[in-house]
């Protein structure tokens, strides 16, 4: 293992530069990129994506990052109980934020209903007005977090929930709680458009995704579909098809992506829980940019049935929430085995053990790869990270310097893998591909240069990287990094009509996120501060396969550390006055 000084002198992952392009020049670029032989190949080479092609790897391929049995052994905890009982036994959610800065959580809703202060129907009537406002010019500019919603459907669900409360038949801690779902997941009656102008047009889903059904079984009110970056293929949710979602903390900045709408609706207070999907950071990046909690689950932990198959081997669904209790609650409800999704068969039972054991962390060893963590561009990120390290040390956690080998190979292999999986989907809609936003047409043209050698060697690299991660976790329980190397990027007005290509922003935003997707391990992002533009800062913890319980525990610790400093968006963009 190299010394710390040696690490600080090396570039852990490369920043491949390319010009920023938007507006009419972007149209010109696409014209030539799709027609001039060799031009797309140059962009492919410039991104470093040929770096694996002519190398030899001895490993077998891993096409789905499910852990070996030895990695799962011991994760099943003898203290496993029905996780919902934890919430039933908990008297209240710890919340140290000033009253005028508090975010509403699921418990606030259910307590208002059981006390007869409000009914789900009354809340949803107010909520519909708030959604309409958030998507209208009256919001100036609109937030555009919600994309599809149906007033009659919301009210019908609210009436059913109200009836249950009136009859003393509440279904549990989610009954009557508004939940939004990313436009990548099937919800009965809604078209799963995946941020495009043509996917499933005129073909609404006839069934809920498995995870949506599990939420409904607990009484959650599904309020509609959230906006997303078209086909989930970047990190801003700049989407000329569906409008660009804006960051409630600074409306001249992006909310992140590709699950940007989900982050926007939670951060602005429209609902306490939203569901996102994450193939390269798409839950964690917008959660970080919008100052909320986001959990990227283990590959195979939550069923993919009813989730659009954009990035089958790297993409998962997970919760995005205003508080950690809701993160744990939504995760627990959605997790578990699905008879129609073989990836879920071999997981240990989901557990929430030790969620509230936050005072003494002497049993935790947390890995820090200092040279990697220093690869940030916003100077406010490192002090926030250092502060959390000190706070965790005060509670007894041990920090250990680690090294994660071959991260640049992992970056390239992940990009080839997710790009191949996205392009395979688009190939099925070839006659409509000209309707894609211009940046995605550039992505498809560039990724057409992936060949069989690139893909196969990427899966061999995955085997190697998973082995490297397994070795790291033999010595630590968690890995701590910034969530992103940047904070929310600025929105340039010229980019709103046609989109934009900003490869440095994409690379910096995904730098710390891709590893968890490529290897299948879980990761959580927690809010940890703000920069001088009032933009939130997020930190990320990664854990071994299926150990979401430990991630939720340290997220709870993080909430206790930061909650007194946490603040809501400005009043104009705070829409959470629902109770």
Descriptive account of the structure:
- By secondary structure, the protein is of the alpha/beta class.
- The protein has one domain (101-565): Amidase signature (AS) enzymes.
- Helix content is 36%, strand content 12%.
- It contains 20 helices and 15 strands.
- It has helices at residues 4-8, 23-33, 39-46, 69-72, 83-89, 106-114, 120-134, 151-166, 210-217, 260-267, 284-289, 324-334, 370-373, 381-394, 407-427, 438-447, 452-473, 503-510, 514-519, 548-562; strands at 21-22, 146-148, 178-182, 221-226, 246-247, 250-254, 273-278, 293-296, 316-321, 365-368, 398-401, 478-482, 500-501, 523-530, 536-543.
- The strands form three sheets. An eleven-stranded mixed β-sheet has the order 2-4-3-7-9-8-14-15-12-10-11, sandwiched between helices. It has a two-stranded antiparallel sheet with strand order 1-13.
- The longest helix is centred in the last third of the chain and has 22 residues, at 452-473.
- The protein is globular.
């Amino acid at each position: 293992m190299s010394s710390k000084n040696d690490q600080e002198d090396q570039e852990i992952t490369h920043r491949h530069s390319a010009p920023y392009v938007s507006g009419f020049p972007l149209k010109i670029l696409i014209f030539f990129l799709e027609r001039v032989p060799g031009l797309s190949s140059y962009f492919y080479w410039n991104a470093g994506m040929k770096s694996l092609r002519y190398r030899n790897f001895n490993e077998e391929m891993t096409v789905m990052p499910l852990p070996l049995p030895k990695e799962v052994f011991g994760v099943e905890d003898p203290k496993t109980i029905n996780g919902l009982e934890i919430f039933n036994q908990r008297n209240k959610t710890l919340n140290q934020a000033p009253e005028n800065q508090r975010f509403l959580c699921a418990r606030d809703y259910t307590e208002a209903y059981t006390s007869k202060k409000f009914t789900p129907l009354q809340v949803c009537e107010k909520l519909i007005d708030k959604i309409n406002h958030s998507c209208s010019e009256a919001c100036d500019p609109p937030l555009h977090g919600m994309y599809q919603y149906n007033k009659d459907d919301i009210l019908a669900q609210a009436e059913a929930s109200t009836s249950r409360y009136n009859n003393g038949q509440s279904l549990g801690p989610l009954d009557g709680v508004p939940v939004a779902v990313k436009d990548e997941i099937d919800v009965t009656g809604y078209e799963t458009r995946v941020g495009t102008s043509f996917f499933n047009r005129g073909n609404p889903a006839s069934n809920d995704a498995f995870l949506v059904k599990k939420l409904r079984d607990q009484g959650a009110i599904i309020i509609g579909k959230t906006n997303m970056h078209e086909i989930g293929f970047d990190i801003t949710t700049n989407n000329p098809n569906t409008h660009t979602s804006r960051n409630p903390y600074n409306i001249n900045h992006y909310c992140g992506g590709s699950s940007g709408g989900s982050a926007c609706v939670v951060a602005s207070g429209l609902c306490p829980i939203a569901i996102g999907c994450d193939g390269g950071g798409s839950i964690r990046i917008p959660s970080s940019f919008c100052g909320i909690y986001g959990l990227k689950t283990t590959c195979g932990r939550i069923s993919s049935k009813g989730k659009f198959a954009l990035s089958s081997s790297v993409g998962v669904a997970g919760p995005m929430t205003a508080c950690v209790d809701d993160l744990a609650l939504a995760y627990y409800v959605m997790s578990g085995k699905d008879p129609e999704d073989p990836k879920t068969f071999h997981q240990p039972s989901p557990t929430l053990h030790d969620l509230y054991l936050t005072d003494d962390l002497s049993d935790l060893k947390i890995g820090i790869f200092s040279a990697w963590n220093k690869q940030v561009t916003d100077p406010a990120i490192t002090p926030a990270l250092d502060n959390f390290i000190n706070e965790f040390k005060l509670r007894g956690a041990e920090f250990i310097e680690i090294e994660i080998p071959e991260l640049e190979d992992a970056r390239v292999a992940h990009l080839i893998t997710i790009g191949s999986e996205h392009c395979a989907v688009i190939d099925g809609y070839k006659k409509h591909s000209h309707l894609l936003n211009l940046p995605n047409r550039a992505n498809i043209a560039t990724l057409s240069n992936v060949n069989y050698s690139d893909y196969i060697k990427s899966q061999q690299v995955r085997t190697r990287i998973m082995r490297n991660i397994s070795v790291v976790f033999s010595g630590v329980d968690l890995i701590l990094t910034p969530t992103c190397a940047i904070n929310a990027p600025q929105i340039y007005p010229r980019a709103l009509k046609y989109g934009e290509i900003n490869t440095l922003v994409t690379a910096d935003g995904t730098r710390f996120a891709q590893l968890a997707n490529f290897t299948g391990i879980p990761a959580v992002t927690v809010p940890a501060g703000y920069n001088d533009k009032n933009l939130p800062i997020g930190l990320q913890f990664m854990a071994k396969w299926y150990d979401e319980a430990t991630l939720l525990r340290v997220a709870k610790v993080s909430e206790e550390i930061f909650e007194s400093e946490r603040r809501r968006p400005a009043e104009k963009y705070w829409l959470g006055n629902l109770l």
